[in-house]
Design brief:
Radius of gyration: 19 Å
Distance between the termini: 39 Å
Bound molecules: iron/sulfur cluster
Largest sheet: 5 strands, mixed
Helix content: 25-40%
Mean pLDDT: 89
CATH architecture of one domain: 3-Layer(aba) Sandwich
Order of helices and strands: EEHEEHHHEEEHEHEHH
Shape: globular
Low-confidence stretches: none
Length: 284
């Protein structure tokens, strides 16, 4: 499964950002073609993110047991929707969530992500951002001239810079974001106040963590408000079919008024069971 190259295009000056041109939909390349022309998801490689399920134009992939992708080649439940003409991609008639937010795949996501190479983890984040409505491009690995992990535009038209930190060492993330904002301002011509800096983290740090103090200090002294979102929150948005307008306003501005992503996600509270500790609010 591949993206269309047009999905990686950014508007205006941002399009000169040297991003990873990889078009893979699946961050682990788990969906492959058999010799007989049928597709299959390799169980051992699947981390259960649900990206292929959301993207399959025929609605023929589902998360079996809320855990791993399965391609229905036999179509026993008549899931497959055929196009009017050969090669046409119809809209799948899928309704409801891809899986419950506390499904096994969500619970096991941190362990699964820790096995991914950096470039693959970055593709996972990029593709999740795309599917929740945010245009993003991630850094080409090995490019020593660019340090920003990701740039993009939200649906509200605002540019953002992102640091992707999927290990417990998140403290450097806000500081790196300051550098990213400076680069976007000086090289791409955006006003500092128009840029949304975003940390994409695996888990929200403990409430007493220095992370929030650094974010607060940056906002007080420099009037730059860093935002935070977890990988689990992005997966929750994908699985529930929720779209983000962007990272402006107080949503995802963890720190001053609390450290809870619930309000920013736009997902019904009843669905927001914690898939793994620290996905929506700090653990412990
Ligand atoms: S659920 Fe995610 S990891 Fe598994 S096959 Fe689909 S896209 Fe790949």
């Amino acid at each position: 499964m591949e993206k269309d190259p047009s999905e990686l295009v950014l508007a205006g000056e941002l399009d000169s950002y040297p991003g990873d041109p990889n078009l893979d939909v699946c961050p682990t390349r788990a969906v492959v073609w058999n010799r007989d022309g049928t597709a299959v998801a390799i169980t051992d490689n699947c981390i259960g993110c649900g990206l292929c399920v959301a993207r399959c134009p025929y609605g023929a992939i589902h998360l079996a047991g809320g855990e791993i992708a399965r391609v229905e080649t036999a179509d026993p439940d008549r899931l497959v929707t055929r196009g009017r003409t050969e090669g046409a991609h119809p809209e799948p008639t899928r309704t409801g969530a891809l899986a419950a937010l506390d499904a096994p795949a969500a619970t096991e996501l941190p362990a699964a992500v820790s096995t991914l190479q950096d470039a693959r983890a970055a593709l996972l984040v990029r593709n999740l951002l795309h599917e929740v409505g945010v245009n993003a491009r991630v850094r080409r690995r090995g490019d020593t001239n660019m340090r920003i992990d990701a740039v993009g535009q939200s649906r509200n038209g605002r540019p953002f810079v992102a640091e992707i930190e999927l290990t417990p060492a998140v403290l450097e993330s806000p500081r790196a974001l300051l550098e990213d904002v400076a680069v976007l301002h000086s090289r791409y011509g955006f006003s500092v106040t128009d840029i949304d800096p975003l940390s994409v983290v695996l888990v929200l740090p403990n409430v007493r963590s220095e992370y929030y103090r650094v974010i607060r200090d940056i906002e007080r002294v420099l009037n730059v408000r860093c935002r935070t979102i977890t990988l689990g929150a992005l997966v929750a948005l994908l699985w529930t079919g929720t779209r983000l307008d962007g990272f402006q306003n107080a949503a995802f501005a963890v720190g001053d008024s609390g450290v809870d992503l619930e309000a920013g996600l736009g997902i019904p509270r009843a669905l927001l069971r914690e898939p793994y500790a620290g996905a929506f609010r700090p653990a412990g």
